[in-house]
Write a structure and sequence with these properties.
By secondary structure, the chain is of the alpha/beta class. The chain has a single domain (about 1-160), classed as Rossmann fold. The chain has helices spanning about 5-15, 35-45, 55-65, 75-80, 100-105, 125-130, 145-160, and strands at about 1-5, 20-25, 50-55, 90, 110, 130-135. A six-stranded parallel beta sheet has the order 1-4-3-2-5-6, sandwiched between helices. The longest helix has 17 residues, at about 145-160.
Length: about 160
């Protein structure tokens, strides 16, 4: 379900009263690939409810450059919402998810293994509040950036002789 910042706070408070373990992760999720699917499936295993914080279009542009995102935040949110392991999607506009993490107060904060646990934004907040921070290995060679490069390579080869 795609929800607002205000709604996710209320939802999390309700889930906590029911004893549900809340897992949070975040990202741009611009072009969904098997690496994302594996990552989200693994993240969900750490609790009952998986919340995905999704960078807004403006946030992605600031982080990845003016040519990104490829897909709009509405499209990216809709795709994530359709994935089995994802329970809630909430868009955030900041460069980091720190404020959203502080609102959600997850039991488990998950990021990719390219991050060191001590460098994960919001990790110290989660730990101080009794939660834990975990990393999940990536599927080798699978990334949105590598997909974009492959597409560029195919089209530049195809049309360079025109």
């Amino acid at each position: 379900m795609i929800v607002s910042r205000e709604e996710i706070v209320e939802i999390c408070n309700n889930l906590r009263t029911k004893g549900k373990k809340i897992v949070f992760t975040n990202g741009c999720f611009d072009i969904i690939h098997i690496g994302h699917i594996n990552y989200l499936n693994e993240a969900k295993k750490f609790g009952d409810i998986l919340i995905v914080g999704l960078n807004s279009d403006d946030s992605v542009k600031r982080l990845k450059g003016q040519n990104r995102p490829i897909n709009t935040q509405d499209d990216r949110a809709g795709i994530l919402d359709a994935l089995k392991p994802v329970d809630y999607v909430v868009v955030f506009d900041e460069d980091t998810p720190l404020e959203l993490i502080m609102e959600v107060k997850p039991d488990v904060l998950v990021k990719g293994a390219d991050y060191r646990i001590e460098d994960i934004v919001g990790g110290d907040f989660v730990v101080r509040n009794g939660g834990k921070v975990v990393t999940i290995p990536f599927v080798e060679g699978k990334s949105t950036s590598s997909l974009i490069q492959k597409i560029i390579s195919i089209f530049s080869t195809k049309f360079s002789g025109s």
